[in-house]
Design goal:
184 residues; alpha+beta; Immunoglobulin-like
Length: 184
C-alpha cells in the first residue's frame, strides 16, 4: 500500500512563483532601497540649502580681526551704547548714541539683511549716519520694495568710526527698536 502525498509535494509538480511575489525578496531588497532613496533626497536638500562655508573675502576678514577686537574694546572702554529705530513711513533710521567721549559728525553704518530662508541671500548695505543733534544721528534708508521689507527678518548692524565699533543683531527691524551695548 502506497501512501498518497499532498498534491503540492508530489515530485515533478513545482509551483511557479514570481520573484516579486516572494515576501523575503522585499525584506532583503527593501531596506537598502529605502536608504538609497533617502540619501539621494538628503543630498538634494543639502545642495539646495547649502550655506556659504567660506566668505569670498576671507583673507581680508582674517586680517581685520585684530582691528575689530581692538575697536570693540575701545567702544567698551568708552561705555558706548546705541538705541536705533526704523521709521517705515519716512524710510529713515534714527539712532541715539551714548558715550563718555565726544562723538564724530558722521558714522558708518553697515546692515546685513537676511531673509527668512538663509544667510545665502544676505544683502549688505552701507551708509553714513549724519549727526542731527547731540548723540542723535539719522540715515535715509529705503529698501527697494515693500516685499523686501516684509522678507527681512534679521538685520546685523555695525556702527563704526575709525577707532571703535558697535555691533548687534536686530530681529524684526520693521516693528521693534534695537538697543546695542558694547560687547564684553
Amino acid at each position: 500500500m502506497q501512501a498518497s502525498l499532498h498534491p503540492d509535494l508530489q515530485p515533478g509538480k513545482a509551483k511557479a512563483v514570481r520573484w516579486y511575489k516572494e515576501p523575503w525578496v522585499w525584506v532583503v531588497v527593501g531596506g537598502p532601497a529605502i536608504v538609497v532613496v533617502a540619501s539621494l533626497y538628503t543630498g538634494f536638500l543639502a545642495y539646495q540649502g547649502a550655506d556659504k562655508v567660506v566668505a569670498q573675502d576671507y583673507y581680508k576678514q582674517g586680517l581685520m580681526i585684530n582691528t575689530n577686537i581692538r575697536n570693540d574694546a575701545a567702544a567698551r572702554d568708552r561705555h558706548m551704547s546705541a538705541d536705533m529705530h526704523f521709521d517705515r513711513a519716512d524710510g529713515r533710521i534714527s539712532m541715539h548714541l551714548k558715550s563718555d567721549v565726544d562723538l564724530p559728525d558722521s558714522l558708518q553704518l553697515s546692515i546685513a539683511e537676511s531673509g527668512s530662508n538663509s544667510a545665502v541671500n544676505e544683502i549688505i548695505r552701507r551708509g553714513t549716519l549724519t549727526r542731527t543733534g547731540p548723540g542723535t544721528y539719522q540715515l535715509s534708508y529705503l529698501p527697494p520694495s515693500e516685499q523686501e521689507l516684509q522678507n527681512n527678518k534679521l538685520w546685523h548692524v555695525k556702527i563704526e568710526a575709525s577707532d571703535w565699533r558697535l555691533t548687534g543683531d536686530w530681529p524684526n527691524p520693521m516693528h521693534a527698536p534695537l538697543q546695542i551695548k558694547a560687547s564684553n
